[in-house]
């Protein structure tokens, strides 16, 4: 009820009380009127609170917690042991895509799910998982992919490109390989910028976090995952970054080299 109507109603009721109620009994009715005002004020404040940003944030947090519980319960039931017992490139992508399927459009939830999955596997297999992830990460250091990130984000720093690659790997095998192509071909496969753009810093830490969570209560825990990983000498681990030979220097070069992609997705004016 609008404030001005409440004020108007107060004056009307007060006049009625003074006209028809004996002076000695008026204080009782004034008390009722005061209680009405207090109740109305509380209702008004509650309505304002439920419409506030703070309450919406709380609702989002509760929703996120419920989603995590559902996802975790489903993960415990559905993740096949066969995927986790033999970590290779094929099972790597299965785990990534499984986590994405259970957390659509929620990268934070996907990363939490991945960490929960990875902390269940043995350390040597966790090392292999990171070797595979970093292998795909290193293979993504190309002029074309940097050009894509650059056009999508009105420029792209070294860190920005790292986070873009993290996001791209977390999106799954199909999109990862799609965006390794010439940008002009991507125009035919994707319609919106949101489909091919994102960033994630935490995805690059999932194995380390999973390892630390698994060993958080170990009394004799005297080592860290990075040290264990750095001792690995597998072919994947020693795979080096390729030297990038940029075929563009600025947005003008990009506009000339990739006119279709630039026109459809670029954020430059």
Furnish the topology, listing elements before pairings.
Layout: H1 3-20, H2 26-50, H3 53-78, H4 81-85, H5 89-101, H6 107-118, H7 123-139, H8 143-152, H9 158-170, H10 173-178, H11 183-186, H12 193-196, H13 206-214, H14 225-230, H15 251-257, H16 259-265
Overview of this protein structure:
With 269 residues, the protein is mostly helical. The protein folds into 2 domains: 3-51, no CATH class; 88-265, no CATH class. The protein contains 16 helices and no strands. The chain has helices at 3-20, 26-50, 53-78, 81-85, 89-101, 107-118, 123-139, 143-152, 158-170, 173-178, 183-186, 193-196, 206-214, 225-230, 251-257, 259-265. Helix 1 (3-20) packs antiparallel against helix 2 (26-50), helix 3 runs parallel beside helix 6 (107-118) and helix 5 crosses helix 6 (107-118). The longest helix is centred in the N-terminal third of the chain and has 26 residues, at 53-78. It is elongated, with a radius of gyration of 30 Å. The two termini are 48 Å apart.
């Amino acid at each position: 009820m609008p404030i001005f109507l409440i004020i108007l109603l107060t004056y009307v009721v007060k006049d009625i009380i003074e006209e028809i109620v004996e002076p000695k009994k008026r204080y009782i009715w004034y008390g009722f009127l005061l209680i009405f005002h207090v109740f109305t004020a509380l209702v008004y404040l509650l309505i304002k609170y439920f419409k506030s940003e703070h309450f919406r944030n709380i609702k989002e947090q509760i929703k996120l917690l419920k989603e995590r519980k559902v996802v975790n319960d489903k993960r415990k039931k559905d993740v096949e042991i066969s995927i986790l017992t033999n970590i290779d490139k094929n099972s790597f992508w299965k785990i990534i895509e499984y986590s994405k399927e259970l957390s659509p459009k929620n990268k934070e939830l996907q990363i939490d799910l991945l960490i929960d999955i990875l902390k269940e596997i043995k350390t040597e297999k966790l090392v292999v998982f990171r070797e595979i992830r970093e292998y795909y990460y290193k293979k993504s250091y190309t002029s074309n992919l940097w050009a894509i990130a650059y056009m999508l984000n009105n420029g792209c720093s070294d860190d920005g490109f790292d986070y873009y690659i993290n996001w791209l790997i977390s999106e799954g095998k199909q999109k990862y390989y799609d965006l390794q192509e010439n940008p002009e071909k991507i125009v035919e496969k994707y319609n919106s910028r949101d489909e091919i753009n994102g960033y994630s810093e935490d995805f690059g830490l999932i194995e380390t976090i999973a390892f630390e969570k698994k060993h958080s209560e170990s009394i004799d825990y005297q080592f860290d995952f990075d040290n264990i990983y750095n001792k690995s000498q597998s072919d994947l681990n020693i795979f080096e970054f390729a030297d990038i030979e940029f075929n563009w220097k600025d947005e003008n070069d990009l506009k000339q080299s990739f006119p279709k992609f630039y026109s459809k997705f670029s954020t430059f004016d």
